Amino acid sequence: MDGVSRGHFGRHRKIMPFEPDAAPTSIDELRNAAREKAASLNQHVLGYGATAEREWAAAGISAPDLPAMRKYRLERIRAELKRRDYAGALLYDPVNIRYATDSTNMQLWVAHNATRHCFVATEGPVVLFDYFSCEHLSDHSGVVDEVRPAVSWIYLYGGELSGKRVERWAVGIADLVRAHGGGNRRIAVDHLDPEGVAALGRLGISVDNGEAVMENARLIKSPDEILAMRRAIVACEAAMAEMEAKLTPGISENELWAELHRSNIARGGEWIETRLLSSGPRTNPWFQESSARIIEAGDLVAFDTDLIGPYSFCADLSRTWLCGDDNPSDEQRDLFRIAADQIGVNIELLRPGISFRDLVERAKNPPPDCFPARYGVLYHGVGLADEYPTLPHASDWTDDTPDGVLTPGMVLCAESYIGRLGGRGGVKLEEQILITETGCEKLSSYPLDARLLAR
């Protein structure tokens, strides 16, 4: 070997990337082999790991039938599209894409960079327009008929030439509508900038707001979705337990909050939507984001998980804990009992057939000295994220608040924040509840702080 060759290779061995008798012989074969390998190692194929599976087995929660769940979701979407007379749905919201395809790709990044979208034909294929070289990310789902490279016309890529890109993008969408719409040129779109609406309009495609389609499709959960949600809640509550074990005087809010993130990711969870954790005087008013404040003995620590866990299901639970070994003050116990009583009464009201308006009229409100600092809603829907409906206190009901009826398969969160206006502390509690055929079932089970609950 000459000096140039030795200098280039050094002491490293050249390793064959394929078995000689199975080595691809063309670029296309190489691409297909790479795609198949990546698809076989997809996170959704590999599952959620031994820790999560052990906890789910201990809780007695069987695995959801994912192919059945995916089929159910597409049927829900298409039923809504037919009911509203649309040729299809164009989806940009990563939560909606997950619902339609059960695939993920850089969920938070694509939420604010429009580089991934999906077209669901009412009568026809599901076409996923994915990020460059990401075809393998949906091969596991069994419901995506075709993957195409997304044409992104955000300024990040198009600059002052974005107008040309949007025209190229619109041609691709319009061709799908013409091919599969049966003459119908109306589509439902969840999020789209005005340039896209105008470009489609020039090609004869009418765009309407698709949020109603997707929120109503996601409203009623299948039995397999409920199993997946139960598993997400078990994972969330295990993460909460690990977080509570770290709660000692001297830890910062950020350090404590990081434990919930760590434990969620370790169980295959995806992200946390907010930073709602506060302690001591920062618990009143609510909606303080986690900070560098050092938590002290005797502080209340309140948080809202807003956690997107395994299977991309939301576990939206709130608890308030007492830091340290001391007993709570009378004021802390009083606030906690008010919150716990409100949540308890309002859960008991949940049953199929009750109207939204009737529910909030019957609901227990905070007492007058705590009412000005009340939480913004009494109940809200939950699934892959916070979902429709949102039910305010009766006094906050306006003529543009939608009414409806609770139906089996809906899942709601009951919320309470109790703090006195201008007071030092506050208590946040929240539970997740399934509407059943005969009433309701509380899906969350993490115990309330016994010291604060004691009378």
Mean pLDDT: 95
* End-to-end CA span: 86 Å
Secondary structure class reads alpha+beta
- Radius of gyration of CA atoms, rounded to a whole number: 25 Å
Characterize the largest beta sheet: strand count, sense, and whether it forms a barrel. 6 strands, mixed
- Give the fraction of residues assigned to helices: 25-40%
Count of DSSP helices? 16
Please give the number of β-strands. 17
Shape: globular
How much beta, percentage-wise? 15-25%
**Lateral strand order in the biggest sheet:** 4-3-2-1-5-6
Low-confidence stretches: 1-16
Give a verbal description of the structure:
A six-stranded mixed beta sheet has the order 4-3-2-1-5-6, with helices on both faces. Strands 14-13-15-16-17 form a five-stranded antiparallel beta sheet. The longest helix has 23 residues, at 223-245. Strand 16 (426-435) and strand 17 form a beta hairpin. The chain has helices at residues 3-9, 27-40, 43-46, 49-59, 66-83, 94-101, 107-112, 155-158, 162-180, 194-202, 211-219, 223-245, 253-266, 330-348, 356-362, 450-453, and strands at residues 88-91, 117-121, 126-130, 146-149, 186-189, 206-209, 271-272, 277-279, 300-304, 307-308, 314-315, 318-322, 379-382, 386-391, 411-419, 426-435, 440-442. 39% of the residues lie in helices and 17% in strands. It has 455 residues and is an alpha+beta fold. The protein contains 16 helices and 17 strands.
